[in-house]
């Protein structure tokens, strides 16, 4: 239920669900310079930009105020008496010492932080029972943290990854998340168990084929087709290997289209839908496609299927979840849960995102090392890298630039933080593409996607497949570096750079 009332100089919006157990997300965009008041019983209240004044009242919800703080007059009240706060230093308002007989035993007195920064022209008032209050950019210098963020609720993506016994990602999550320790059986299997004395000789003599998918382009980036097996040379740790299998792959692909619909991509969902439809059109009928959306968690809109109509129907029915961005968890989920069961086939992941996992905003703060409490992915990027190396899927990240939009309402310090976040996000996406043998793209507008999708489709149609038995048979867990050369002037090969001998 939504009610909108307009007055001479005031507009009020009241939203409620018909059923008490239902939840409701409300997103409102207003011009800068207005006074904003928000009341909620639970859930997170967020205000971003440059308002004239902010007043928030909530019972148990958190309050995130992404506003400039160099000119703020703030009063923050926790009626339950326990401060939970991150932001610029504010003095605590000392409560008068009352006679023991006059202190009520039923409830503690409220805790209050109040003070003025700069000239204090932007008024901020927050009143909450026990919620977490965050004021200003999370990476601002001199930031103080009082109390602790509550542990994040486990997402479906994180739980599925943690329950997987064969992936390094599951091992990493179980190590990071104490709430998942019950998933580890005391004597159960681990991803790569250590060999017993009797098994050691057998395992050390095993040398399974190493399979590679390769894309070869000329100096101008155009795909080179028609190459023969004798034009390829494979080196492992600098030692030439004998190629046992070679083919120009024309077999179907299993392709996951992973779309970012988090809050940082708000306002672009219709364009994202159009982009997904266009990509489905350029794929071959024999290819299987899965469609996944992600924000705080992952939603499987359509599993791997040949049925394009099913995917399109599911896409049209989607309501974007928005929220924070758990990018690394989403990629890990797609590799393990969707493409893991078809490992060994031709697999690819096309990712459309602005590249910013919400955890990056806390880099350099105490919460950076606490994935259980900071927003964003449970997985660390370093752990995701190991999962990408373990997977045989090609990854094609498409990064949408939205730096100007994110920085519009910030001061110079805030804009520099956004620029630094963009650089780090691009670095991470490029690394994922390089590790998998895919290709990285950066675009300014979703309108640029059509040519990119056709380029990716052409790339997937001209993939070479080769396999070799390593001359070094030990499976000691060490990293083996792979180099593939092609006897054509100016030829460039994209493939995974190596593997762990496990």
Topology:
Elements: E1 2-6, E2 11-15, E3 35-40, E4 45-48, E5 53-58, E6 63-66, E7 72-78, E8 85-87, E9 111-116, E10 122-128, E11 133-135, E12 144-146, H1 156-163, H2 168-176, H3 197-205, E13 210-217, E14 232-236, E15 239-241, E16 243-249, E17 254-260, H4 269-282, E18 288-294, E19 298-305, H5 308-316, H6 327-338, E20 347-353, H7 381-390, E21 394-400, H8 403-407, H9 412-436, E22 441-443, H10 449-461, E23 463-468, E24 479-486, E25 492-494, E26 498-500
Parallel strand pairs: 3-5, 4-6, 5-10, 6-11, 7-10, 8-11, 17-18, 17-20, 20-21, 21-22
Antiparallel strand pairs: 1-2, 7-9, 8-12, 13-23, 13-25, 14-15, 14-24, 16-23, 18-19, 24-26
User: Could you list the spans in which at least 5 consecutive residues all have pLDDT below 50?
Assistant: 100-106, 181-206
CATH fourth-tier homologous superfamily of the domain at 254-463: von Willebrand factor, type A domain
Could you estimate the helical fraction of the residues in percent? 10-25%
Shape, per Cα inertia axes: elongated
Overall CATH class of the domain at 254-463: Alpha Beta
Q: What CATH architecture label of the domain at 254-463 applies?
A: 3-Layer(aba) Sandwich
State the total count of DSSP E strands: 26
What can you see in these coordinates?
Among the domains are: 23-96 and 106-146, no CATH class; 254-463, von Willebrand factor, type A domain (Rossmann fold, 3-Layer(aba) Sandwich). The chain is built from ten helices and 26 strands. It has helices at residues 156-163, 168-176, 197-205, 269-282, 308-316, 327-338, 381-390, 403-407, 412-436, 449-461, and strands spanning 2-6, 11-15, 35-40, 45-48, 53-58, 63-66, 72-78, 85-87, 111-116, 122-128, 133-135, 144-146, 210-217, 232-236, 239-241, 243-249, 254-260, 288-294, 298-305, 347-353, 394-400, 441-443, 463-468, 479-486, 492-494, 498-500. The chain has a six-stranded mixed beta sheet, with helices on both faces. It has a five-stranded mixed beta sheet with strand order 3-5-10-7-9, with no helix packed on it. Strand 14 and strand 15 (239-241) form a beta hairpin. Helix 1 packs across helix 2 and helix 6 (327-338) runs parallel beside helix 7. The model is unreliable at 100-106 and 181-206 (pLDDT under 50).
